[in-house]
Amino acid sequence: MKYLPSISSTRRVTAVIAAVSAAGLIVATAAFAVASPGAASGAALASDTARLSSAPVPACQTSQLGVWIALAQSNGAAGTIYYPLNFTNTSGTACEMYGFPGVSFATAGTSAGRQIGVAAQRGNAFTKVTVRLAPGDTSANAVARLQEHLEKHVPWGAELTTTVVDAGEPTVLPTTGPAYAAARSALAEAWDGVAAVDMGTGGSIPFIAEFQETFPGASILVTGVEDPDTRAHGPNEGLHLPEFERAVLAEALLLQRLGGA
Length: 261
Description:
By secondary structure, the protein is an alpha+beta fold. The protein has three domains: about 110 residues, no CATH class; about 45 residues; about 80 residues. The protein has four helices and eleven strands. The strands form four sheets. Strands 2, 6, 7 and 8 form a four-stranded antiparallel beta sheet that branches. A hairpin with a 2-residue loop joins strand 7 and strand 8. It is elongated and about 95 Å long. The protein starts with 5 loop residues before the first strand and ends with a helix. The N terminus is likely disordered.
């Protein structure tokens, strides 16, 4: 539901509400019932709990407002019916209102205005987003840019809350030096003399950047065992055992070479 931000002394503001039926639909959680000009059934209440603005024009009070549902202007889609909800400032003083009134079902007829059950609750939605950092970027900058993008596309009336669960800084590992030469030699021997091939890859292992910063003189070699059909981290992850056997041999040969250096 949305309605316009201001109401003057004779000005009418229209919002839209959705319901499954016309009879007995009450919008708001408050305090007074008003007769509906030209409406056959139902009543409407003005909400004390709508979020009011802090503009120089004073906020509207329930005693200043007349509210009714325009039953003749209904519209709808599958499973729903939409009715314009009219707000009129019946006082002689300009006032302003902005926000979302509560929605409740209530009785009509001679006992109009008695709330049935609890008020409707506003729905929340959330999602988790993973950001892969571009070369040269930082986690703080990536989070800030993502936040800016999300805030520019928040739907009208929605509120956005962002929580950073975890973050890690990027790093690029060098592939030169005695440790890498030993690794290439061990891999070649384990694969019957076939030379290892360098290829670029990436992953989310935050502690590597921290380790590299703490030990800048160390050679960091991250090893893992995969084959072209491994499907790593998936529910159907697998490992070709002959490939695993060669990887175990290469690891042992590497440790032997490093221990003898």
